[in-house]
């Protein structure tokens, strides 16, 4: 596998660490992460990843941060956007994967994960 693809996938895996039920797989022939059986993110190429994202949030991100997020005609109207991996910070990437995971997890999973985060943030 190409070095750039591996580097992008490693960043995605690192950013998704700690999210429940993450499965390493492939999608369209490239490395991908699923939340259970639902696609969360995948490598598009050595500089770009595809992130599953609700359409309203996608539109907001495209307008607010066009340096980080974009779409091609292929993704118009679909709940997915493209991320520039050479520009996005690790913190922003982690935040986006968490948001994507929350939109794809079951309500029970999401509630349990959020409750666990609250307990962690309350610890001294």
Strand portion, in percent? 25-35%
Radius of gyration: 14 Å
Q: Could you say which overall geometry the principal axes of the C-alpha atoms support?
A: globular
Tally of alpha and pi helices = 4
Extract low-pLDDT stretches. Answer: none
- Determine the N-to-C terminus distance: 44 Å
Which structural class do the helices and strands define?
A: alpha+beta
- What's the structural domain tally? 1
The assigned CATH architecture is: Alpha-Beta Complex
Return the CATH class. Answer: Alpha Beta
User: What's the helical proportion of residues?
Assistant: 40-55%
Question: Main sheet?
Answer: 6 strands, antiparallel
Mean pLDDT: 92
User: If strands are numbered along the chain, what order do they take across the biggest sheet?
Assistant: 1-2-3-4-6-5
CATH topology: Aspartate Aminotransferase, domain 1
In N-to-C order, the SSE pattern is HEEEEHEEHH
- Name the quaternary structure: single chain
Total strand segments: 6
Pfam families: YjbR
Protein name: MmcQ/YjbR family DNA-binding protein
Organism: Mesorhizobium hungaricum
Index terms:
single chain; MmcQ/YjbR family DNA-binding protein; 6 strands; Aspartate Aminotransferase, domain 1; YjbR/MT2646/Rv2570-like; alpha+beta; 4 helices; 6-stranded antiparallel β-sheet
Q: Could you describe the 3D structure shown?
A:
This is MmcQ/YjbR family DNA-binding protein. InterPro entries: YjbR/MT2646/Rv2570-like. By secondary structure, the chain is of the alpha+beta class. The radius of gyration is 14 Å and the shape is globular. The mean pLDDT is 92. The protein has a 6-stranded antiparallel β-sheet. A hairpin with a 2-residue loop joins strand 2 (30-35) and strand 3 (38-45). Helix 1 (3-16) packs across helix 3. The chain has a single domain (3-122), classed as Alpha-Beta Complex (Aspartate Aminotransferase, domain 1), CATH 3.90.1150.30. It has 4 helices and 6 strands; from the N terminus they run αββββαββαα.
């Amino acid at each position: 596998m190409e070095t750039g693809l591996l580097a992008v996938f490693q960043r995605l895996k690192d950013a998704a660490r700690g999210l429940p039920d993450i499965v390493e797989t492939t999608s369209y022939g490239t490395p991908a992460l699923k939340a259970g059986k639902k696609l969360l993110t995948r490598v598009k190429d050595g500089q770009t990843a595809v992130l599953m994202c609700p359409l309203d949030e996608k539109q907001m991100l495209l307008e607010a941060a066009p340096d980080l997020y974009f779409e091609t005609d292929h993704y118009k109207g679909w709940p997915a956007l493209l991320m520039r991996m050479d520009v996005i910070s690790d913190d922003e990437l982690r935040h986006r994967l968490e948001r994507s995971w929350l939109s794809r997890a079951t309500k029970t999973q999401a509630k349990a994960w959020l409750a666990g985060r609250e307990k962690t943030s309350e610890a001294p």
